[in-house]
Amino acid sequence: MDERRLAIHGGPKVKTTPFGTGKRFGEEEARELLEALEQNTLFYHHGKKVKQFLQDFNELYGVDYSVAVSSGTAAIHVALGAAGVTVGDEVITSPITDQGTLIGILYQNAIPVFADLHPHTYNMDPASIESRITQRTKAILVVHLAGNPSDMDAIMAIARKHDLKVIEDCAQSYLCRYKGRLVGTIGDYGCFSTNDFKHISTGDGGIVTVNSGDEEEYRLVHAFADKNYQRLQGQVRRELSYLAPNYRMTELQGAVGVAQLKKLRRICETRRRYGDRITEGISGLRGIQPHQVYEGGTCSYWFYMFRLDLDALTCSRAEFSEALAAEGIPNQPGYIPEVVYLQPLFQKRQAYLNSHFPFDLSDVTYPRGLCPTAEQILQTAVRIGVSEFFDEQDIEDIIQGIRKVTAHYQKP
């Protein structure tokens, strides 16, 4: 049998063994949960688990202050609220992201503004960010997509020049570094998610780092996550001066987080090694554009996404994806179907049912073509899962699958 013949055409599959799997939770989490229950309270202020979770996280990240919240979405909202983002302000962010990045902007009745992306890191292009700044701009919300650090030196320089807050969305980017610095510690705030689909899981949950190291700012962030109550050092203050949500983390989430954090270095290092190996294995293939990481950076690959140069191939993206799946390599065309500003929420300018507020405060529009590179990324990208439970052979099979399909469809 011709080994080069695609499986979709009757040839032999590249991947003939199952991908490695494993258990994310075990006795460590069970012990922590039991200890949480034995406290006879699951409220973060009275228990010890959320406090321990944050202490461990702060030591891992080298920060003095962080606040636990109920989700990564909540973390971003809390950071925006603490940053003073308010009615009619503009916040510049990425058009390839989850809705969780955007919810907090709109809950603060601010206006999302979208910057275009670098074609191969899939993170915001600093030049595009600067071109979107107006007198209404209050903050830059940086999305480190898929565990890949953004160009933070350039972004921080722009923020200082225009006196803007920088909030880092690190939901997919645990322990990745930009020029040696952990992302989430570079901007004013770092926002992390511990929902069930991230590097570590507490079911749902999140963390906000307060990178100034200023205690008063920490108190502000802490209060904004808890109805503007200040529950610190055994005391409770209820002097309400403005609206804030209730995004508290429970002791059960904190307990699982304590155990999960102990596994985080291994998880991220394994994913980094696997993702970098995929890049090494497919670099130089005509028709393939690997996932790029800036020199001096490290990526913890929440997923791996490469792009097709369709001018160099005889197939469509859909045909390539189907052929790769037939080789035993599960994949997904793109990350999300379209850039977020083409969703009905933005096209109808409707954040709240039966209202155009806050969009009617602004002349910002969301036409197709607003971020052409981002749109092209989603039309040409192929996403592959990466897991710490894979083994080395799984990664080699992924590489061989991509190489085999590419070789078949390359133009002469």
From TrEMBL:
<dbReference type="InterPro" id="IPR015421">
    <property type="entry name" value="PyrdxlP-dep_Trfase_major"/>
</dbReference>
<dbReference type="InterPro" id="IPR015422">
    <property type="entry name" value="PyrdxlP-dep_Trfase_small"/>
</dbReference>
<dbReference type="InterPro" id="IPR000653">
    <property type="entry name" value="DegT/StrS_aminotransferase"/>
</dbReference>
<feature type="region of interest" description="Disordered">
    <location>
        <begin position="1"/>
        <end position="22"/>
    </location>
</feature>
<dbReference type="Pfam" id="PF01041">
    <property type="entry name" value="DegT_DnrJ_EryC1"/>
</dbReference>
<comment type="similarity">
    <text>Belongs to the DegT/DnrJ/EryC1 family.</text>
</comment>
<protein>
    <submittedName>
        <fullName>dTDP-4-amino-4,6-dideoxygalactose transaminase</fullName>
    </submittedName>
</protein>
<keyword id="KW-0663">Pyridoxal phosphate</keyword>
<dbReference type="InterPro" id="IPR015424">
    <property type="entry name" value="PyrdxlP-dep_Trfase"/>
</dbReference>
